[in-house]
Specification:
Radius of gyration: 19 Å
Oligomer: single chain
Mean pLDDT: 94
Strand content: 35-45%
CATH architecture of the largest domain: Roll
Number of domains: 2
Largest sheet: 5 strands, antiparallel
Helix content: under 10%
Shape: elongated
CATH class of the largest domain: Alpha Beta
Bound molecules: zinc ion
Amino acid sequence: MKISPDTVVSVTYTLTLDNGAIADEADAQQPFLFIHGIGQTLPAFDDALSGLAAGDAFQFSLTADQAYGNPNADWLISIPRSVFSGEDVPADILHIGAILPMQDQNGNPMDGKVVEITDENVKMDFNHPLAGEALHFKGTVVEVRAASAEELDHGHVHGPGGHHH
Ligand SMILES: [Zn+2]
């Protein structure tokens, strides 16, 4: 069976950045599982795997535009330092480079990275950690099967490595 929309795909991969750093990995013990063509992965990632079958190796690169876009200055946000001074907040969490779980105005969780600390404010970067990066994927297709009607209805994979209800 070939990878096409509405197949459940299992792959191992290594994701490398331009500087050679490994940003993510899925190995044979815990392959990456997704339903093809429903937006569970980057569209360009889905496209690059289309037509491959179990056992096929792959290697491809995505530009930043095809991946997480370029960093946007609008996502650098100054937050009053007092927000971080509650008694339930550990004193040592505030340091440059710290990734902290925050919320947007609507209460949705968002991770932000501390980039600047002044007496009054903490400047946080809410861009995707891989914004501005080209992504280089190398891996192997482990399994391809048709998604069940229930999986398509739920929008996620069931069974080993997937959701259990
Ligand atoms: Zn489900």
